[in-house]
Write a structure and sequence with these properties.
- This protein is mainly α and 325 residues long.
- It has three domains: 100 residues; 105 residues; 63 residues, no CATH class.
- The protein is built from 20 helices and two strands.
- Strands 1-2 form a two-stranded antiparallel sheet.
- Helix 2 packs antiparallel against helix 3, helix 3 runs parallel beside helix 6 and helix 8 runs parallel beside helix 10.
- The chain is globular.
- Keywords: Repeat.
- It holds the Pfam family HEAT.
- This is HEAT repeat protein.
Length: 325
């Protein structure tokens, strides 16, 4: 009697389908795997279906989601299948709002050492983003509730979703969330990024205030959000903060990194001036900011000239480490 394939063998065989050309046979093999009792098999098949955008499998994915919602602690530990299904349906731009709504509300507490843990946070986060894409009825209510979810991944996703909504109401909710505060810098960063996405013109002035925060995680979240935005107004906000007297080195390093993230010519010129003129510890921070553009040969040449003129061993060593072609 032939030995029954192990789960690992089945998963390995399924993953090889990623390399197959699109075909009706591939679709049917994935359909069968999506209907499998194993959440790991179904999750892997859903991942492939989403990556390939095989929309013919959308109905099978919806049916599988319903199946894995039944007795979920037994049938879908860690929500692996449900997470993969929601992400696949979203990538297909499928309007499965019933699935997304159920996922956005799902809590799945599983036993861990010393208690239980909610393993459905990534599921709720993925569902929130999917509902934002579909502009579901009641979306803002869902996002308000998600902004105060116990799990940081969900709060961060809600902030990201509000940035995508882009309305005045979304901006006000994000500003309120920042005022109330959040213990997770990741959430604050998404709130700041959301404000900048909602209002690129006024957003930098709103976020600028938090560059003066005495709470370093808040300052970092604001600065890095400005850097990611690549908005001209973000440069002005960061430069203004730089000009304030008596900045601790960690604050300067954060501002320099954010300026590097902007990738604006004016910001790059400023960082080169810092490398040329500021004390070595600060100049090293500017090199960190410039490292984001290390792939640019013309910029590398400019940095090399500045570092060579200074002849500081620390700067020469950092350049050799981070900017070697």
């Amino acid at each position: 009697m032939a030995k029954r394939p192990s789960l690992d063998d089945r998963l390995a065989e399924l993953r090889r389908l990623r390399d197959r050309d699109p075909s009706p046979e591939l679709t049917e093999e994935l359909r069968k795997a999506i209907g499998d009792r194993s959440n790991l098999i179904a999750a892997t098949a859903a991942d492939i279906a989403g990556e390939r955008t095989i929309t013919e499998l959308a109905n099978a994915l919806e049916a599988a989601f319903t199946r894995f919602m039944a007795d979920p602690l037994k049938n879908d530990k860690l929500c692996r299948a449900k997470i993969a299904i929601v992400k696949a349906l979203d990538r297909m731009e499928h309007g499965a709002e019933d699935v997304f709504l159920a996922a956005a509300k799902h809590i799945q507490r599983e036993p861990v050492w010393g208690g239980t843990e909610d393993t459905a946070a990534p599921l709720r986060a993925a569902a929130i983003l999917a509902l934002t894409r579909t502009n579901a009825i009641g979306l803002m209510t869902i996002l308000v509730e998600s902004l105060v979810d116990p799990e940081k991944d969900v709060r961060a996703a809600a902030a990201q979703a509000l940035g995508a909504v882009g309305s005045e109401a979304a901006t006000l909710l994000l500003r309120l969330k920042i005022r109330v505060g959040d213990g997770e810098p990741e959430v604050l960063s998404e709130c700041f990024s959301g404000i900048l996405a909602c209002d690129p013109a006024a957003g930098p002035d709103i976020v600028r205030e938090y560059l003066a925060s005495g709470h370093m995680p808040t300052l970092e979240a604001a600065a890095l959000a400005l850097g990611r935005s690549r908005l001209p107004g973000a440069y002005e906000a960061l430069r203004e903060r730089w000009q304030q007297p008596i900045l601790p080195l960690p604050v300067k390093e954060t501002l320099l990194l954010a300026l590097g993230m902007l990738r604006l010519p004016v910001a790059t010129d400023f960082l080169l001036d810092v490398v040329a003129d500021e004390p070595v510890p600060v100049a090293l921070g500017a090199l960190t900011g410039l490292h984001i553009q290390a792939h640019d040969p013309r910029l590398r040449s400019r940095i090399e000239e500045v570092v060579a003129r200074r002849k500081a061993p620390e700067l020469l060593a950092r350049f050799a480490r981070d900017f070697s072609a």
